[in-house]
Q: What sequence folds into this?
């Protein structure tokens, strides 16, 4: 491990010598991740993308991509686009990335089950804004908005996310 790694510990997310309070999936941490289980997958993951709402904030990093109206994330396990960003119209199951609430205003994408997704192993493991302190996610890592923006401004494509 290096200081440039993000490390999820029982005390929070460590990154660049700081510790940030965070929330994890309502199913806890698992070594056997499955679609819909609400768990955060254990392992060494990489940050492979950053998405943001340009109508709500400036780009947090030069490599961040805007979330546009109609952007979705496929959670349709048997579909060829499973665990990929897709656009409307898209009939299989998908989650809207452009939400009314601020949860997905800024998203760090992980490489969990990506780019060659295996059916049923889970999709959309993001680092995003938490609903409120202590409120679990559906498997993602949730941070306070200010902490997420601080991290996003200092992370790079390929940064390791270690979940123990």
A:
């Amino acid at each position: 491990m290096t200081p440039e790694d993000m490390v999820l510990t029982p005390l929070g997310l460590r990154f660049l010598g700081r510790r940030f309070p965070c929330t994890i999936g309502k199913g806890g941490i698992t070594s056997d991740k499955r679609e819909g289980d609400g768990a955060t997958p254990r392992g060494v993951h990489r940050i492979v993308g950053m998405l943001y709402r340009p109508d709500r904030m400036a780009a947090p990093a030069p490599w961040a991509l805007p979330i546009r109206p109609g952007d979705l994330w496929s959670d349709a396990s048997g579909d060829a686009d499973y665990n990929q960003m897709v656009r409307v119209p898209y009939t299989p199951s998908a989650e809207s990335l452009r939400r009314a609430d601020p949860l997905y205003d800024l998203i760090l994408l992980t490489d969990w089950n990506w780019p060659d997704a295996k059916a049923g192993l889970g999709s959309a493991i993001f680092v995003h804004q938490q609903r409120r302190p202590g409120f679990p996610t559906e498997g993602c890592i949730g941070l306070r908005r200010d902490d997420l923006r601080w991290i996003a401004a200092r992370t790079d494509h390929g940064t390791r996310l270690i979940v123990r």
Observations:
- The mean pLDDT is 96.
- The first helix runs from residue 145 to 154.
- The CA atoms of residues 74 and 84 lie 6 Å apart.
- The longest strand covers residues 43-52.
